[in-house]
Write a structure and sequence with these properties.
- With about 400 residues, the protein is α/β, with parallel strands linked by helices.
- It folds into 2 domains: about 100 residues, RuBisCO large subunit, N-terminal domain (Alpha-Beta Plaits); about 260 residues, Ribulose bisphosphate carboxylase, large subunit, C-terminal domain (TIM Barrel).
- Helix 6 runs parallel beside helix 7, helix 7 runs parallel beside helix 8 and helix 11 packs parallel to helix 12.
- Helix 13 links the parallel strand 12 and strand 13.
- Helices cover about 40% and strands about 15% of the residues.
- The strands form 3 sheets. It has a 5-stranded mixed β-sheet. It has a 5-stranded parallel β-sheet with strand order 7-6-5-13-12, with helices on one face. A 3-stranded parallel β-sheet has the order 8-9-11, covered by helices on one side.
């Protein structure tokens, strides 16, 4: 059949485009070839000779607007795409920025920029950092989040641990991501017991403490878990978008029947960033994407531990959690990964006060002092916050 290159396709484009920044590895010629392929593979994904002239070629394909050498073997490319290829869902956004390119290697997404009209269609956080602070009645200092673990504890044992954490005046208590609906620790019983124990402790301390159970699985069971958690008294939800999908988290954030803060956990996302010459850079993976998909808190490993993430990465994650982003309010980054009291000053100096400390196992070195260990950590955080300029 002859190529209908000049035929009117019926496609209409506003002319508004969004941009994606890539780091391309290889020679200058390799970078030029990869950048040109991005324009096609991220849109029509067809051989050049079958792409008709006219609207498709002129408006639908990507356009390389910048290509510059960072080193002889590393180049920065900025490619724009029409906004009509986005539908307001994280999956469409992921497809556009890295979908097919992610199969090739030597290509890494380092940033992207969306027009406000596109951002307005994304879920975005329901509460954001300020809304979460209002719920907890903590206007300024860093927030503290304790973790229920290890896997293998019974619902009653986890509830007892949660009670001690809450008496230690932490702000949030989350399930470990390993906790699911196991036969030895059923979801409903665990959530009911833990929520009750935390509510009891909060009445004693007079301070709010939000419990975030881990919800997981296919949509039907996940939404059922979310509803049961809310009914039992949970004050937030933990979700692993790498396992369930960013669209799922966005759907939860937009549910009118469920108004709970969402905490995004990085389980299964690591393979996207650990190789520095491909995948998705940490600021995008742990900052921009969770924020647009509705997370109020984003968890990721802090620098200085046994993870391939740098101080620069963590600084940039915090920046994209806080920078202006259309109608999306700022969200809270975290200091996570077996954080000890010895790093409080460093973390507050580095992140400032808009941070959530994910309290590590160090608090439980003395099982009879869990409550006092939490209170000690809180006092150190408050002291460091008050002494900061």
């Amino acid at each position: 059949m002859p190529n209908s290159s000049s035929r009117n396709t019926g496609l209409q484009f506003s002319g508004e485009r969004f941009s994606v920044e890539y780091r391309l590895h290889g020679s200058a010629a390799d970078a030029r070839r990869r950048a040109d392929l991005l324009c096609i593979d991220q849109t029509v994904e067809a051989a050049d000779h079958v792409i008709p002239s006219g609207t498709i070629r002129d408006h639908l394909l990507g356009r390389v607007i910048q290509l510059e050498a960072l080193t002889p073997k590393s180049h920065r490319a900025v490619v724009t795409f029409p906004v009509e290829l986005l539908d307001g869902t994280p999956s469409a956004l992921l497809h556009m920025i890295i979908g097919m390119a992610g199969l090739q290697g030597q290509i890494r997404v380092t940033d992207f920029s969306l027009p406000d009209t596109v951002i307005a269609r994304m879920a975005g956080p329901r509460f954001g950092s300020q809304g979460l602070r209002d719920l907890l009645r903590v206007p300024r200092r860093p927030l503290l989040c304790a973790v229920l673990k290890p896997l293998g504890y019974s619902p009653q044992q986890l509830a007892e641990l949660a009670h001690e954490f809450a008496l230690g005046e932490v702000d949030l208590i989350k399930d470990d991501q390993s906790l699911r609906d196991h036969p030895f620790c059923r979801f409903e019983e665990r959530v009911a017991r833990c929520a009750e124990a935390i509510a009891k402790a909060s009445r004693q301390t007079g301070k709010p403490c939000l419990y975030a159970p881990h919800i997981s699985g296919p949509w039907t069971s996940l939404i059922e878990q979310a509803a049961k958690a809310a009914q039992a008294g949970a004050g937030a939800l933990l979700i692993c978008p790498g396992l369930t999908g960013f669209d799922t988290m966005a759907s939860l954030a937009q549910l009118s029947s469920l108004s709970l803060p969402l905490i995004a956990h990085p389980d299964f996302l690591g393979s996207h960033y650990v190789t520095t010459d491909s995948g998705i850079a940490p600021p995008v993976l742990f900052g921009l994407l969770p924020r647009l998909a509705g997370a109020d808190i984003t968890i990721y490993p802090t620098y200085g531990l046994n993870y391939p993430i740098s101080e620069k990465d963590c600084r940039q994650i915090a920046m994209v959690c806080r920078r202006a982003l259309g109608v999306c309010p700022p969200i809270l980054p975290t200091a996570a990964g077996r954080i000890t009291a010895s790093r409080i000053r460093e973390m507050v100096t580095f992140y400032g006060s808009d941070i959530v400390f994910i309290l590590g196992s160090d608090l439980r070195r003395e099982p009879t002092r869990i409550r006092s260990a939490c209170l000690d950590f809180l006092r150190l955080v408050e002291a460091e916050r008050s002494s900061s300029p």
